[in-house]
Design a protein that fits this description.
single chain; 8 helices; D-Maltodextrin-Binding Protein, domain 2; 2 domains
Length: 249
């Protein structure tokens, strides 16, 4: 009987704690799809942690707005498909806001503006767009860099080959299979800083585009509103700039 009463009391105490907020959190949890390797925006660091500007911004906004977040690093194309199919609630992956994408996604205001640059292997004799004539350059599928390269390909007489991720694209250039690649400047500059055997020829930076957080068109309006409000707050309190500076300075 004493054992039974002890168990009963323990059960009552557990229920009481849960009722008072001592149990599991009732905060809304969102699944956010993202790229696998697009440093400094999202990548796995030496400690095995998934980090980056995009990751830290979403985490800061989640804390500010009181929701929980689960990241799914799927790759750029797969991340977009996950949102479109309802497998993820939102996507942040250094994604440029374009009129074409607005047909499928609802975007936040821009949270980052990135120029586009051309990079070549260290010691390359490619110094300008004119030097690309008759050669092949690498791009990452679906990126602003890919769009820019394709827009000038006919003018400068080069062909384009596409890759699904940035590291594979860089390695193709370093190996000499392609003579150059087009990438968002902060991404390329970060990789060069981290030791990639590549360089950015002088003057090879062009106006880029705005990055946006996105949800499936017509859905998850509350998540988009929370991102907007949180972004404004972390910009006002200095957290946003602190995050960006930690990866770019």
């Amino acid at each position: 009987m004493k054992k039974f009463l002890s168990l009963l009391l323990a059960g009552v105490m557990t229920l009481s704690l849960a009722a008072c907020g001592g149990g599991s959190s009732d905060a809304q949890k969102y699944i956010i799809a993202t790229d696998t390797a697009f440093p400094p925006f999202e990548f796995t660091d030496a400690s095995g942690d998934f980090v980056g500007i995009d990751v830290d911004i979403v985490n800061a906004i989640a804390e500010d707005q009181g929701f929980e977040v689960e990241f799914q690093p799927l790759g750029f194309d797969a991340a977009l498909l996950a949102v479109q199919s309802g497998q993820a609630d939102g996507v942040i992956a250094g994604m440029s806001i374009t009129e074409k994408r607005k047909e499928t996604f609802d975007f936040s205001d821009s949270y980052y503006t990135a120029d586009v640059t051309m990079a070549v292997a260290k010691g390359s004799d490619i110094k300008s767009y004119e030097d690309l004539n008759g050669k092949t350059v690498a791009v990452k599928t679906g990126t602003n860099g890919a769009d820019y390269a394709k827009s000038i390909a006919d003018q400068y007489g080069f062909s384009v080959v596409e890759f699904k991720d940035s590291p594979t694209m860089y390695q193709d250039v370093i190996a000499g299979n392609t003579v150059a690649c087009f990438e968002d400047y902060p991404v390329m500059a970060y990789n060069v800083q981290q030791g990639a055997e590549m360089e950015i020829p002088e003057g090879m930076t062009a106006a880029g585009s705005d990055y946006g957080f996105a949800v499936k068109k017509g859905e998850n309006a509350e998540l988009l509103a929370a991102f907007q409000a949180g972004l404004a707050n972390i910009k006002d309190n200095g957290k946003y700039q602190e995050i960006v500076d930690s990866y770019t300075k």
